[in-house]
Amino acid sequence: DSGVTQTPKHLITATGQRVTLRCSPRSGDLSVYWYQQSLDQGLQFLIHYYNGEERAKGNILERFSAQQFPDLHSELNLSSLELGDSALYFCASSVELAENTGELFFGEGSRLTVL
Amino acid sequence: GQNIDQPTEMTATEGAIVQINCTYQTSGFNGLFWYQQHAGEAPTFLSYNVLDGLEEKGRFSSFLSRSKGYSYLLLKELQMKDSASYLCAIHGNNRLAFGKGNQVVVIP
């Protein structure tokens, strides 16, 4: 158990719909990262938050948005869903000291299926 | 940005040694990570290199050459449970960018 909690574990929805994925980082971790992993693909970096502020954005679609709340949990919102959005979405957290990050601890992921 | 290249798949025998290479280009570098990922599961941390040289951790060792943009992960005394994807990741520019991973299949 990494200490990172993601909900829901599985989600099936239809094209055009909107979903919210939730992540609770490990106790004490200020950084949250979101990744998308499609079938047989690598982990694609979406976005990084540190203590409530956006730090870096990857190839995140405009239909996707995220935020980190004062209690440090984070949500990834996916809207106008398309078939190609079906993937495993991982959240990871870490302690960050200056420019160095500790190892990232990954949650078990949220598997999204868009029909 | 970051560009990370890893070979896609290799097969090795139980008990053998396997080396997984990673080459990268990046505009910002704070360190290189290796992660293991079994299919459908979360990646788990294996090793971290920030300075040139070899880091040893039990059956796993990782090497880094920053001037060459090159790293390798060495897996010794392979076990069946080592069948997994091995991901090289670069930390820089406020992100951890992963390569596509190298699938290692361990056979008896």
Description:
The complex is a heterodimer of chains A (115) and B (108). With 115 residues, chain A is an all-beta fold. In chain A, 0% of the residues lie in helices and 53% in strands. In chain A, strands 2, 4, 5, 6, 9, 12 and 13 form a 7-stranded mixed sheet that branches. Chain B is an all-beta fold and 108 residues long. Chain B is 0% helix and 62% strand. Chain B has strands at 2-5, 9-13, 18-26, 31-37, 44-49, 53-57, 60-65, 70-75, 84-92, 95-98, 102-107. In chain B, strands 2, 4, 5, 9, 10 and 11 form a 6-stranded mixed sheet that branches. In chain B, strands 1-3-8-7-6 form a 5-stranded antiparallel sheet, with no helix packed on it. At the A-B interface, strand 5, strand 9, strand 11 and strand 12 of A face strand 5 and strand 10 of B.
Brief sketch in words of this structure:
The complex is a heterodimer of chains A (115) and B (108). By secondary structure, chain A is mainly β. In chain A, 0% of the residues lie in helices and 53% in strands.
Write a concise keyword list for the protein shown above:
heterodimer; A: 115 residues; mainly beta; 7-stranded mixed beta sheet; 53% strand; globular; B: 108 residues; 6-stranded mixed beta sheet; 5-stranded antiparallel beta sheet; 0% helix
Helix content of chain B: under 10%
Percentage of residues in strands of chain A: over 45%
* Approximate shape of chain B: globular
* Total helical elements of chain A: 0
Mean pLDDT of chain A: 92
Rg for CA atoms of chain A: 13 Å
Largest interface: A-B, 25 and 22 residues
First-to-last CA distance of chain A: 31 Å
Task: Name the poorly predicted regions of chain A.
Answer: none
- The low-pLDDT segments of chain B are none
Detail the topology: elements first, then pairings.
The complex is a heterodimer of chains A (115) and B (108).
Chain A: E1 5-7, E2 10-13, E3 19-24, E4 31-37, E5 44-50, E6 53-57, E7 64-68, E8 74-78, E9 87-94, E10 96-97, E11 100-101, E12 105-106, E13 110-114
Parallel strand pairs in A: 2-13
Antiparallel strand pairs in A: 1-3, 3-8, 4-5, 4-9, 5-6, 7-8, 9-12, 9-13, 10-11
Chain B: E1 2-5, E2 9-13, E3 18-26, E4 31-37, E5 44-49, E6 53-57, E7 60-65, E8 70-75, E9 84-92, E10 95-98, E11 102-107
Parallel strand pairs in B: 2-11
Antiparallel strand pairs in B: 1-3, 3-8, 4-5, 4-9, 6-7, 7-8, 9-10, 9-11
